[in-house]
């Protein structure tokens, strides 16, 4: 039992989760791993029915129906129903943490790929484009 708790805690620490959720009244096996939400017809299916990178997503709760929540992306709006309040809270926590981690990773990559002589902030956006285009011609 204690090993089981450690295993669950380590999954939460890595911000991953999996389990059944209802989507439009139908049960789907849903997984969150590495900032990506995937849904399957059944556990063990090799190919997901769909995936959503959580980078540009938001999570919405419904206080009047606390087992319901939405994951909204630029492409999909998914209305999920968890089997219990505790499960809904767990899913929302992992989803929000995954969104945060995706945003932080994206910011870190942007910082690491900026050139030391980056023109950002020194010129207008149009001037930056013109100067960047000129430097690419050289």
TrEMBL record:
Domain of life of the source: Eukaryota
InterPro entries reported in the protein's UniProt record: PH-like_dom_sf, PH_domain
Name of a matching Pfam family: PH
Domain PH: start-end pairs: 15-102
Protein name: PH domain-containing protein
Lineage per the UniProt record: Eukaryota, Amoebozoa, Discosea, Flabellinia, Dactylopodida
